[in-house]
């Protein structure tokens, strides 16, 4: 039985978000396993130049047999900044990303059918769809339609109301929302059995469901580093049935209206306690989902009990309040970053 993803690495609240004791392994090793080495190196160089820190080069140290503790400490300090979800270095953009984002921005401004988008969203699309202009523009068209169709204003004020309604739509279906230092990503844990799609009988309920899911994804992508690392989705599948799904028509609407267009990368999607129905559903839905999603699926994960027994503590009400605070904290940073970011 494997350990539950992130249970040692998740910061319990914003006050603990910069506590290095929450990191379960040396940061250098974590970045070797999970980071984009070229991007990490560029960011660290930028931090070094800006802060006047003398970087420690691992290869040079190996060649020369150096054990300079001061340089080692400076290197670790910079890596800590990169993993700190509140540090401004997570908004550093690479030259390649900037050039591609500017190309997307120019294409959008030249299309009379598209509304202009923020530099921040251009950067998000550049990270998710590098060197694929057609795919990037298709996502923008679908996102524009989605916001109009479901009356999504894409603002912090709108999010406050919709996220609260979304968390209450299906009781305790969001088990946890948190940031993992181990993976440098945000984790959203969902109880599939609590998501009874038969409850989606009105257009208002659909607006709450998809609008809330939109803001949850925005919260998992508050900065450029989070976008590069990709989100982590964890699903508790025990008790999930065909009636809970609400039929193929419901599943298709969720996929077509939201999943297929939102610009995000997935670090992993872990499905716990999958039975025969969920295994079959995942196999059947594979052709309908983006390749970047299905390639990250990890099916058949196990834990010593249902995940709600781990996450809904000390009570379900406390857990939901905690989740709301964390989501709004991440959204506040996203919209602040979007307002200030320029290519």
TrEMBL record:
Domain CRAL-TRIO: 184-295
One Pfam family, short name: CRAL_TRIO
InterPro entries given in the database record: CRAL-TRIO_dom, CRAL-TRIO_dom_sf
Residues making up the signal peptide according to the UniProt record: none
Full protein name: CRAL-TRIO domain-containing protein
Organism whose genome encodes this protein: Seminavis robusta
